[in-house]
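Sequence in, structure out. First:
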Amino acid sequence: MRSQTDALRLRFLGAAGTVTGSRTLVEAAGRRILVDCGLFQGWKTLRLRNWAPFPVEPASIDAVVLTHAHIDHSGYLPLLIRNGFRGAVHATTATRDLCGVLLPDSGRIHERDADFANQKGFSKHAPALPLFTEAEGERALDAFRTTGFERTVELAPGIELVFHCAGHILGAASATLRVAGRKIVFSGDLGRSNCPVMRAPDPVREADLLVVESTYGDRLHDPADPEDALADVVNRTVARGGTVLIPAFAVGRTQIILYYLDRLRRAGRIPAVPVVMDSPMAIDATGIFRRHGDDHRLDAATCATVCGSARLVRTAEESKRLDQQSEPMILISASGMATGGRVLHHLAHFAPDPRHTLLFAGYQAPGTRGERIVRGETSIKLHGAMVPIRAEVESLDMLSAHADADEILSWLRWFERPPAMTFVNHGEPAAADCLRVRIRDELGWRVRVADQGEIFDA
């Protein structure tokens, strides 16, 4: 029989049966460690979970481990702190710097959306309230404690943390927790093995328990050359006098798109139309990208050129004037799934005109505007009004920052022995189950798909 100090429990509080809302609670050595603290996104039924009480008392959590900065992994932190969490948030330095942009910006968007709903009267709530505020996003940063890759950090007596480069975005990590002589590994979001901008994921060799993501667990990325595909879209759109509108994640995807556009423009493969970055968050994130050269593959000169290749738009007035421009341009704006941000008013302007192209360059969670547009819906609701989609719609999944199924399996093959149990999470049901079957059949491991709310005692 195990002693109480040896007892180990995993509780899957999010990203189980869906991609978003990453939250896994580790209970061991009399402590509670929360791995990731994200918001649910997409379908309304998922987003409503963000408003529900946290499944355990936040004050009872000793520490949070953050694998990377994206809001579906970090965005619940302001609420956790508001509701009583007083521990440290452990992250890489780049993740902390990016959260310094993302969390206040997310709060600002929540406030703006609530204000707009109250002005226009289309909210079912009176008054509409923000999920959290910009000030709460700022305050969350005080809890961060940073470390580098492959360094050991004590989270609590008897519990240690080591981060490994995951290659997904700047600062993204896989995480190993060492407790009671056992190793629990969380893959985090794994990046591509051959991305020219981001580092490939580092191998992890040992795990007693493993939690692995499955965003693209049921598919392979298009093997087409991203430069060729992007050039085709730009040339086709500009030839008909249109603008390419790219809803892009401010962190990661924007910088990769800038890299490819700069290469195409220098090679003379696309016209010299303006490239515009209309996202204060993306502008700030690009500055952080330049400061963290060890986290990506670009040398200092190339990084400076790429990051300086777009016209930067910060003010709301400048952003609105872009919609009055008649000449073609390539317009990059957040958010990447069209769930909020300035891209919404650009969509309202450009989507009804068939000259333009809406180019999606990353994963679109089911239920988001981006996913519905890519799926072929002919109209979309924006700020309370239905907007027709007559623009060309393209999706270049080869620009994704997520490993595909083969790349996930390649990463798993680095392990020197099978974990006692592998849990598949962070994927839609079909993707998670497909990856489960491949892990079982190709690696011979014990593996199961994590269920929302599931408790596993080891």
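Second:
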Amino acid sequence: MSKRSEIVDGPAATLGKRGLIYTEVLGWVDLGHAQGDDIRKLLPQFEAGEGGGKPYYDVKYFQDMRKFRKRVGTSKYTVWRIKKGVSRSEQFSIALAMMMKVAYRFEGLQGGFPFNFFTDSGFSGEDLVSDLLGFYRVVDGIHYFSELKPVSRDEALKRWDFYGPIGMFKNESFRPLLFPDPELNSNARPYFGVLPAFMMRIKPYASVPSERVDIVIDDGTGWHLKFSGG
């Protein structure tokens, strides 16, 4: 759940790993989601499998969250079986497909019982597009923030205070949800924008299940409960 206090200066975003910024191209961006740590954990699994001695190997993608001092947590995950010999570009395509499927399901999980009592994070307007940004930042090795036209903290706060918390605006797509400058139009309303070209370059892998790519676990859910300890 993004908070007003988490809003940081957009032009300095490349230096931070946490916080919320507003950009003219993607709207609100959650810097945590945009780090792409999930993709950094996934891609080495392809490298290990391709370098191994077996004809098939499994890769697992997951997203998780923890609440109540990390004592309660949940995750969504999927496991796919890959036939050795997929190209690097195919690996990226498969990784994108896995991320998009799990990210959507994870947002749905956050929006359901019991988490909807504690957070409005489920399909919050910035989450999915921030996940997608994180994917491309890792795959391409480029920060990309300058291309997204981040605004100052004051400009971002102005939008938050005029429109309300981003968690109020649900976005079940990977499209950017934009909030026009209210000083330019007092009747301004949020609207869906268009992804920049670099965020449409890779297409999610569609030939699944097949001989080369199969699904071992389609829609997995994990739970974490810690009753004692620090």
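Remark: The helical segments are 37-51, 88-110, 127-140, 145-148, 153-163.
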